Amino acid sequence: MEYIVLNLEGNRMNGKVTQIGAARVDEKLDVLDTFQMKQEQADPMDMIDAMEKFRLWCGDAPLVTWGQDDIWLLEYIISENGLNLDWMPEIFDGREIFEDQVSGHRQADLNYAMMVLGMKPRAVKSSLTRSLYMVKVLQNLSFTRGIESQRWGGCNEICGYGYELA
Question: How far apart are alpha carbons 73 and 79 in whole angstroms?
């Protein structure tokens, strides 16, 4: 199975996106392909075109983001531009996987996760670079266990049952 590790850069207050960066990975988190779109200052990004290119590139691969902000922004952009949300695949939260397995610290940012895992965080302005940093963090975790935990509503092995999220 393949996953899309996604990072959006933009203004979450007005729903404007300046960058879309994503890495297509396999179950072992090996990077298979990347996707990047940047808005030039003089040339506003055509969100309908950008979202269509991104949708086609993603196919039906599930998305992995760092927290819920990027998902909110993606859904906002799609709905505000009159696009159909039906193509949205399963979505998983890489930050939640990190928090459950390593830190217990809620709302941990990506730089914090990198430091905890012994990586040197760097200030980056590229959404693609942030996506690739997310991949590096997730490679240090039990990604499959984290995905299954979210897929089954966060139910752990002890409870003996689970449910699928709608």
Answer: 10
Q: Structural domain boundaries of the chain?
A: 3-151
Q: Which residues are within 8 A (CB) of 122 and not within 5 positions of it... i.e. 6 or more apart?
A: none
d(CA 164, CA 61): 18
First to last CA, the chain: 20
Q: pLDDT tens across 61-111, in order?
A: 999 999 888 888 888 888 877 777 788 889 999 999 999 999 777 788 999
The whole-angstrom separation of Cα 52 and Cα 30 is: 25
* Class of the CATH domain delimited by 3-151: alpha beta
